[in-house]
Amino acid sequence: MSSGSTNALPPAEVADHDRDPGPRDRGRRNRWRWLRHEWTTAVLGGLLLAVVLTWPTMRHPATTVPGDIGDPTLQAWQMAWAGHALLSNPFGLWNSNTFHPETYTYAYSDTLLGYAPAGMLGSGFEAALVRYNVMYVLVHALAFVGAYALVRQLGAGRWGGVVAGVAWAYAPWRLAHAGHLNILSSGGIALCLAMLARGHGWSLRHGYRPERRRPGWALAGWLVAAWQISLGFGIGLPLVYVLLGTVLVGLGGYGLAWWRRRERPPFGRRLLAADLAGGAVFGAVTLLLGLVYLRVVDLNPQAERSLAWTESLSPPLIGFITAPADSWLWGERHAAAREQLSWPPEMALLPGMTLLWLGVTGLVVSVYRLRHRVALGVAVLVTVLLGLGATLGGDGDPGYLTLSRHLPGWDALRTPGRMMHWTSLLLAVLAAGTVTVFAEAVRRWSTRGRLRFLVPVVLLLPLALVTLEGVNRTAHPVVPPPPAAMRAAEEPMVVLPATGGAYDLIFMLWTTDGFPRVTNGLAGFEPATQAQTKAATAAFPDPGSVAYLRSIGVRSVVALPGWAAGTPWEGIAARPVDGLGITREEIDGVLVYRL
Questions:
Q1: Cβ distance 164 to 205 under 8 Å?
Q2: What is the reported pTM?
Q3: What distance in Å separates the CA atoms of residue 491 and residue 510, rounded to the nearest whole number?
Q4: Which helix (H) or strand (E) holds 40?
Q5: Is residue 481 within 8 Å of residue 125, measured between CB atoms?
Q6: Domain boundary among 469, 499, 519
Q7: Is residue 568 part of a domain?
Q8: 493-496 and 556-559: which strand pairing?
Q9: Are residues 451 and 492 in the same domain?
Q10: Domain count along the chain
Q11: Partner of 165 at 20 to 30 A CA spacing, among 1, 21, 173, 283?
Q12: Among residues 442, 469, 496, which one ends one of the domains?
């Protein structure tokens, strides 16, 4: 009895380490385990790093934009319009409220259509600015996470992944595009490649491992690639050709292995189905968007760009080691080099001095196989040669211009320097390979007391250097808010001065308060009706301009006299309206004409 009572202790007296954890304890442990997971840390760290390295973007997100008051206002409008259109009239998506009375006006520029879900959150001018600034931070975080995921899948260690992620997401050349959200939105490129490689069980370090195939990841990779294309063809079209080339090389390698071994290498029906389904979605998105842009060119022949654009925007070789002015570390130091560039915003292409050094070292010291390092080095060289555009050999043929003449759609990519997306990504992969070698050596050193002091230096030095090169001094100007007169005017309307310049981009953003139809807008070309409207309204208000505006359905004109200096509309407030059959009202210094 006594022995039985001793063994049967009450629950309160059972030691904690012997107690079976209940559901609540197990759930708490699982939550903490999830928070400590590598990918949770990578995502949260990427978000925090993005806020810090894009600062002061989030200081005043409802009133300022990074870069300049130009393309950011256009892109803030694009996101707002996509969300508004898909919620209110999905079939009218492509016929936006700008460039009245033209059609397919939403496709006059890279659309950022993939950000439409964000455009559904909030409404109005301030919401559009906050949305833009939040997305600006998030695209940097996604670029970091995408590059981290890619190099980890290819066989690099965690430290290599962090260095590669920072080096690619915050490369100095990106600072020249602080006002180009469509160019910065490249995180999907690295992420889809990581997912596709994971889905197919392939890495640079270990080669093809059939047992690691994951059809779900392959499908996700194709879907992310389709989403990347939906952000625009400016950087998306090269991805289309890279994936097409990868598929062809993969099929060739699979066939060669089959022929050599006289047996079919393992692939799997589920993986094949995932590739076919995902590839079909990717192809459909690419084709449908391509048809929309072709329709724009059919309606506006002037929208087709000649190769003269490519020739004028082709950078010299010195551009690849020249930083933009917005670089805190290199901006002033490279001022003399930038003077040799005819258009520095597209020609200052420094991927980072640290990244260059680590990338070159990665050709020699790396965890990757030799043949893969050689392939990466050749790919870096090819992207640099393509990035030179017309300056390669004096005419860019063979080279970038050759692709412009023969690959469908490539002629619309007028800026060869944007191949730096691929150059810097390849360098980041090489850099991750060599950093991983250092990190693995550090683990061995950490067991030797006398060398332990080297551990933080070896691990933190390359990370600190690539982070330092990503520090910006980007301007964050205040965006003028819309005047009350915009809400008092009846649509369709014209906002004057309609110069066809940056003012029109601001006017487009102002329309996010209700999305009234306006004749204003700015794109890479000028639609015929917009040119006619500018010419016809130069003398507004007069009988000819009033008659013309009525003929295209315009019912109101909003004029900002304070913005009209040096334009045909200077002194518009003094022009009489007697006998024109219109009325004029002044609201806070802004004139509203009702036709």
A1: no
A2: 0.91
A3: 13
A4: helix 38-53
A5: yes
A6: 469
A7: yes
A8: parallel
A9: no
A10: 2
A11: 283
A12: 469
